[in-house]
Amino acid sequence: MRNLLIALFCVLCVVSAFAQDAVAPVAAPAADVVAPVVATEYKGIVEVTPAAEGKTEATVVLDMGEKSYQLIAADAEKLAALVALEGKTVTVKGEVVAAADAEALESIKVESCVEVTEAPATDAPVTDAPAADAKDAE
After folding, report:
1. What is the C-alpha to C-alpha distance for residues 120 and 132, in angstroms, rounded to an integer?
2. What pTM value is reported for the model?
3. Of 36, 42, 87, 134, which residue has the fewest beta carbons closer than 10 angstroms?
4. Which domains does the chain have, with CATH numbers?
5. Helix (H, G, I), strand (E, B) or coil at 32
6. Which bin fits 41, alpha (ψ -120 to 50), beta or left (φ > 0)?
7. Which stretches of the chain are DSSP H helices?
């Protein structure tokens, strides 16, 4: 009986060793791998609120009608450019950052900002050329 138990133990060890080699290890997805962020374009009107007490920078918001985003400038130069565009329609290219709490606005990290200019209306007079085969009415 003792020999039978030893043989059974040896068989189990050998089978488990082969079973571990046969199954490929499943790699867990890396936690630090982030999908690439694509900057998108947003069009709206720039609204500027002056800096409140205790703050050093004005709050700049892009109003798109139903949706508004707070604009985050990377440096003072971009912030000054955004403040200069107050009340104008602009196209902002950047990455959306989710709001920290439910009551705060979502933000856009601004990569570029361009004022939208409407195509000028053509004031060229329209003249009707007389038809070549029209007969004079007499």
Report:
1. 33
2. 0.58
3. 36
4. 40-115 (2.40.50.140)
5. coil
6. beta
7. 2-22, 76-84
